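Handout, page 2. Input:
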Amino acid sequence: MRSHGTRALSGYCRSLRDGQVNPNPDLRVLQETDTSVLVDGDGGLGYAPMMRATEMAIPKAKAKGVAVGATRHIGHYGSAGHYVRRAMQEGCTAFSVQGGHTTYWGEDGRNKTIQSAYWGNPPICFGLPGQDEPPLVLDAATCILADYQRGEAFDALQELIPAAFFKSMGYTGVATALGGAFVGMNSPEAEAVTAKWPGARHGGLVLVMNIGLFAPAEAFRTGIDNLVRGVREHMAPVRGYAEATLPGTVESRNEQAYRRDGIPYGLEDLARIEATGAAFGVTPGWA
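Output:
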């Protein structure tokens, strides 16, 4: 996932170096039941604690049908798809979201200085595995526009399609709350952790469901196949595109190609990695 892999590495390194997040967190299970687990990230990056919560939730979901994994006091946890795809590998369907402390109001954290239409952009992902077709995976973020899509041309869209912006604001609010207040980020303890580690104002959530909970697993998987295949074979593509596909199809094709041929590395990414290496005294093998 280029946007959340090589392109993000430099930022992670700086956040660790500059004391924004804890470089040596003590990950602890704070709460656990037959259907839930909560992991404390202790101000560190979000990958390890969120994956631990996911790994612990999967067998619970297999045994009980549904389970929830959560973490709090973390920095960025990357793509929400990491945790959903892990659950899918184990025969489950899942939803994941990263939220934050509820005092976070926008891109730069200052009230009344940004447009509400561009409020936040927390990651969310839904993943539903198929049988023979690619999975249905909506790995996205809540704002209708990407972070770099700002300016007069984009502002004009607010009058043309206001409903889309209201929807994205609603998605942002729900995501921020589920991955934030719901997992315990609206508390004095969370404020104390954030005061010590300013980059650790986030929480994360994953809901894992056994695909055989209500119907045979095979019936579920072939049902997803029918959706994916039906869109591809019977629907007209979006203008400017050659094929109608559901989210997850292109990513699945890329994954197969990358496993076969290797992962393409952009020149900008190479330059960014080299610059990061120079700043931290690490020389890349290709340099």
